[in-house]
Amino acid sequence: MNSLRMALDSITEKKGRSFLTMLGIIIGVTAVLVLVAMVTGYNSDMTAYYEKLGVNKVTVKMTWYDTSRAQDMMAQLYDYGNVELSDLVEGVSPDLSTRLPLQYGNVTVDSSTIYLGSDQFSICSNYTLDKGRDILPLDIENRSMVCVLGSYLADTLFPYSDPIGKTVTIGGNPFTVVGTYYQKDGGTDGSMDDGAVIPYSLNRKVLISDWIDSIILKVKTSKDMDTVMDRVELWLAEAVDSAVGECEVENGNSAMTESNDEMTSLSVVLGGIASIALLVGGIGIMNIMLVTVTERTREIGIKKSIGAPRREIIGQFLLEAGILSSLGGLVGIGLGFALSAVLGKVMYDIIVFPSTLISVGAFAFSLVIGVVFGIYPAVKASNLQPVDALRAD
User: Fold this and answer.
1) Residues 6+ apart with CB under 8 A from 226
2) Which residue from 20, 34, 49, 56 is spatially nearest to 254, judged by alpha carbons?
3) How many other β-carbons are positioned within 10 Å of the β-carbon of residue 221?
4) Partners of 108 in the beta sheet?
5) Is residue 24 a contact partner of residue 281, using CB atoms and an 8 Å limit?
6) CA separation, residue 164 to residues 121, 306, 346 (Å)
7) Is 77 helix (H, G, I), strand (E, B) or coil?
8) SS3 for 195?
9) pLDDT, tens digit, 9 for 90 and up, residues 57-110
10) Low-confidence ranges of the chain (pLDDT < 70)
11) How far apart are CA 353 and CA 340, in angstroms?
12) What confidence score (pLDDT) does residue 389 get?
């Protein structure tokens, strides 16, 4: 207890020097927490983006070598997914879009995304119907000139009226609005809400194209992704002549998984770089403790002359180094939390805090750094001879 009191008195006696000694630890801990928290915030932002797009999607991409013998794979995959794979698959829809202006009255929205989808487009692309109805199988069959608007388009083209039943112009063609979707991506220009879906059977009229070369199958659960991919690959091998074309099956979750892995690696690297500041802070503690030993040489001599054991001298200086590094760690954690919250809100519009594990780890590391770099000054102090120490000015 007496050693603790003496260590605190030594620290408070020279507050400015003590603060500068802790500064390296403070900066190091703050940097570690903020950098790791920002990577976590970015990862959360990317995960939310992928979830808006829709997860658990298998994409089939086709390349035709002989277009004269190309097949309508959309209709075949639709039937296969909804019949043979009905226990694993929720929906099937083309992955096909273009950008065209939409107009209603005097209001025009340029370069909105026009999706060409099946009646299961909203399931495959994570949209939820708000008003009216969705695209129907009959719309696909009859090539009906109907559309479902995203929330941004609905609010922009029809700010004061119900859009259902109204006629809008898409790329110069009249379409009847039969439904609208709930907002899912901020409801702004260029977002996923700035779009409309029309029957995919209109691809020849709208895109002047005969082929749908990318199709999505929405799988019910992530654990069934590999099963669905294997079964689709086997089915395609039998359905498509390799001399006519080839099909590639892709895991739609792979991009999100790769992003998470990259962010985890980046978090470790940035945390390691920031930890260098902690090492610099430890060196600062060692330097100051060496100065302290020099300043208190006479005090050490008196203690040793009256019988203070070597371990007491070492313990006193290690305790002082540990207190300095611990206080620096606590201040750094406080600053790390505050800066993480502010930067997370500014950069990602979310409140991001460092994890408890990272915070405890940073504090423990700062304490260890202080003690380790305090060992040499403490041992040096304990090795002083009482006669020599008492002669010191």
Assistant:
1) none
2) 56
3) 9
4) 103
5) yes
6) 19, 95, 38
7) helix
8) strand
9) 888 998 888 777 777 789 899 999 999 999 999 999 999 889 999 999 899 998
10) 1-15, 17, 43-54, 208-210, 253-264, 266-267, 270-271, 273-275, 277-278, 289-308, 348, 377-378, 380-393
11) 6
12) 47
Put residue 132 in one of left, alpha, beta given phi > 0 → left and psi -120 to 50 → alpha.
Answer: left
CA distances from 128 to 95, 194, 237 (A): 18, 14, 34
Token digits of residue 14: 């020279």
pLDDT tens digit string along 251-281? 876 666 666 666 667 667 766 766 676 677 7
**Would you say 194 and 179 are in contact if contact means Cβ atoms under 8 Å apart?**
no
- DSSP-derived letter for residue 191 is S
Of 195, 55, 191, 206, nearest to 125 by C-alpha is 55
The domain segmentation of the chain, as residue ranges, is 2-49+258-391, 56-93+222-252, 97-211
Query: Which of 48-54's residues contact partners 24+ apart within 8 Å by CB, and which partners?
Result: 50/255, 50/256, 50/259, 51/126, 52/126, 52/184, 52/185, 52/192, 53/125, 53/126, 53/192, 54/124, 54/125, 54/126, 54/218, 54/252
| pTM confidence score | 0.62
Token digits of residue 42: 């970015």
Residue type, 25: I
Q: How far apart are CA 238 and CA 250, in angstroms?
A: 18
Question: What value does the mean pLDDT of the chain take?
Answer: 80
